[in-house]
Amino acid sequence: MMISRRSLETATALLTGAFGAAVVVSSIGNGIGWSASGVDAGTFPFIVGLIILSGSIFNLVQGWLEAGDILLRPSELKRLAILFIPAAVYVGVIPLIGMYLASAAYVFGALAWHKRGSFVFAGIAAIGTALALYVIFERMFQISLPRGLLGDFGF
Amino acid sequence: MENLEALLHGFTIALSGDHIFLMLIGVLLGILVGVLPGLGAPNGVSLLLPLTFGMQPVSAIILLSCMYWGALFGGSVTSILFNIPGEPSSVATTFDGYPMARDGRPTTALATAFGSAAFGALAGVVLITLSASWVAKVALAFGPPEYFAVYFVAFASFVGMGGSPPIKTLVSLAIGFALAAVGIDTVSGSVRLTMGIDELVKGVSFVVAVMGLFGIGELLIAVEDEFHLKAISSKVEWREVFRTLFGLPRYGWVLLRSAAIGCWMGITPGGPTAASFMSYGIAKRFSSRRANFGKGEPEGIIAPETADHAAGTSALLPMLSLGIPGSATAAVMMGGLMIWGLNPGPMLFIEQKDFVWGLIASMYLGNVVAVILVLLTVPIFAALMRVPFFIIAPLIVIICTVGAYSVSNSYLDVVLMMGFGILGYLFKKLHYPLAPLVLATVIGDKAEDAFRQSMLMSRGSLGIFFSNTLVTTLVFLGVALLVLPVIWQALGKMLARSPIRP
Questions:
Q1: Domain boundaries in chain B?
Q2: Which of A49, A78, B92, B337 is an S-S bond match for B280, by CB 3.0 to 4.6 Å?
Q3: Closest by Cα among B329, B302, B366 to B70
């Protein structure tokens, strides 16, 4: 699979345009213009939203007119996926198994999977990561990180 | 002269074994919170506050202010090495600091940053020493229109720079403003742009956006080209640290100008973040090596770092002399002052001479301690750059995740952070500039509030922005910064064309 500059430009412009439209719609409810209490709360976001929306339409057309050179080749896409998918899974499982287990598993997986990695090193790094998080956040700065399942077992 | 005498008296208070020890502890803890994104100087200072209740006020403020210096220095470390700003005010340092470190010169980048930061801090303290009593008058003249004009100058000095496609710059800036508006509107109290998600009432934290845009976004860009997969094999050399430091005077003009911008922004409560952006923007505009900016230009590190520290230091001045905290950290410290039984304000300088001048003297010493400690740790931090990418990548993801979570103990922030990561990747890939977005996210709501308050004062007339000399000068300065590059460009084209004609 290859991705061209044209499709990436289009996708980004659609994304920012949708955000702009949402800002415009949402700020209408806050009131636009001048009232007894001065400039209404929605005025400023409304103008900003319009700027985002019209700018995105401009970028959309501009991006569509641009030459369709290839921006992402299959090898690059693969490397992106290898980094992003585990990271997304890591963030996704935090509510289930907690920050400590998820971080340890993520570090273990990333290091053990790599061709230069070893299981022993990966294991030490995983435990080290969890411990470091615990000491710095829970102990030193008294910020409790989500524990997920660990919390259920009374940790 | 009176001030100098008082300062000497202050040194006799600050230079005791106990106080030097407190400085060391404060600076070390400060560097730690500065390096960790999500945790910042406000967190560190609030956590230490309870420990200070039993102390002498002078000792307590020395501990807390040294922690602040440490955090300011530490914030630059992660900006330069990982492109993750540890503190809002060190965002502008990433623009040139990170490219320089990535090109195999982490030691030079860190030494340049710390050297110019030290100069900025020194400029700030000297300013406090000389003008402590005079400044109260200037800051009192600041109302909403003047605040807005200062923010306008900050935007103007940064936005009109060009280089990126203008419409993309505009979209990026506007998205930043929209993000800043999410949550409770401070003027009317109504809830804005939450899109039906109740938790968004607290707003989109700047830290969350920055960690996603810069940390995760940069990681995705980096993984694409194989470049990062090989470890950077630069050796850390002490000689390089000193050579960089001794080479700094060559940039004397940039240092002086940035320090002046920083001091001005610190006293008028524009704050360190706006100061560093503005200083970077102005340096880029007037530099003869403009094309090098963003690719590891030393001036691009010197300008924001000097201004950041000059502003951070001189921001304590309005807190002490007026009781107006210029930043979150200063607000927490001011809470401390009141708990210790002191009243910030003009009377402090008359009633609590020992405290005020002990603090000012400790600023000189504390910054020296901070520079020494942080320079000693340069080799350790620079060695981090040599850790292979496959180990550093998951660690950066974890640091960003935990950092985003710790901002307000919210999982939603973590999800938002990942979203910003994808946005940062797309923007970077397609040459949308990220800096305007970040700047607008940080000071957008303040600028909006100031504008609306001014409108309330003037009953809707824009004339209030020309009502006195101070505000008019600021507005014209901003307009000039926006318009001048366009005129220069046009002039340049005309001059380039004229010799061709017979």
A1: 2-500
A2: B92
A3: B366
d(C-alpha B45, C-alpha B255), whole Å: 29
DSSP strand pairing (A38-39 vs A70-72): unpaired
3-state DSSP percent of chain B in helix, strand and coil, to 5: 80, 0, 20
pLDDT digit string (tens) for chain B, length 502 residues:
567 787 888 888 888 888 888 888 889 888 877 777 666 677 677 767 777 777 888 888 888 888 888 888 888 888 888 787 767 778 889 889 988 888 878 888 888 999 999 999 999 888 888 876 666 566 667 788 888 887 787 777 666 555 567 788 889 989 999 998 998 887 787 888 888 788 888 888 877 887 788 778 878 887 876 544 334 444 556 788 888 888 889 998 999 999 999 988 877 666 788 888 889 988 888 888 888 888 889 999 999 999 999 988 887 877 777 666 656 677 677 777 877 888 776 677 777 778 888 888 888 888 888 888 888 877 777 676 667 777 878 888 998 898 888 878 889 999 999 999 999 999 988 888 887 887 788 778 888 888 888 888 888 888 888 888 888 988 898 888 777 767 766 776 676 655 444 3
Measured CA to CA, the distance from residue A52 to residue B173 in angstroms comes to 9
Alpha-carbon span B355 to B353, nearest angstrom: 5
Q: What is the DSSP letter of B130?
A: H
Domain-wise residue ranges, chain A: 3-72, 74-152
Cβ pair B402, B51 in contact under 8 A: no
H or E, element range at B183: strand B183-184
Nearest to A23 among B178, B187, B430 (CB): B178
Identity of the residue numbered B97: G
Rounded to an integer, what distance in angstroms lies between the CA atom of residue B231 and that of residue B80?
A: 16
Nearest to B98 by CA among B273, B271, B221, B235: B221
Contact residues for B193 (Cβ-Cβ < 8 A; gap 6+): A23, A26, A27, A45, B178, B181, B182, B183, B200
List strand residue ranges (DSSP E) for chain A, in order: 3-4, 34-35, 38-39, 70-72
What pTM, to 2 d.p., does this model score? Answer: 0.75
Q: How many CA atoms lie within 13 A of B364 on its CB side?
A: 16
Chain B, 188 to 207: residues with Cβ < 8 Å from chain A are 188, 190, 192-195
The owner of tokens 């320079």 is B375
Please report where in the chains the tokens 């910003």 appear, as a residue: B420
Which residue type occupies B252?
A: G
Q: How far A39 CA sits from the closest chain B CA (Å)?
A: 6
Q: Are strands B191-192 and B183-184 parallel, antiparallel or unpaired?
A: antiparallel
Tell how strand A34-35 and strand A38-39 pair up. antiparallel
Q: For residue B127, count other CB atoms closer than 10 A to its CB.
A: 22
- How close A31 comes to chain B (CA, Å)? 10
How many beta-carbon contacts under 8 Å exist across A and B? Answer: 163
Across the interface, do A111 and B394 touch by the CB < 8 Å criterion?
A: yes
Q: At what angle do helices B144-159 and B435-458 cross, to 10 degrees?
A: 150
With CA atoms as reference, report the closest residue to B155 among B466, B473, B436: B436
Distance, in Å, from the CA atom of B257 to the CA atom of B123, rounded to the nearest integer, reads 11
Nearest partner of B411 among A105, A98, A132, judged by Cα:
A98
CB-count exposure of residue B139 (10 Å: 0-12, 13-18, 19+): middle
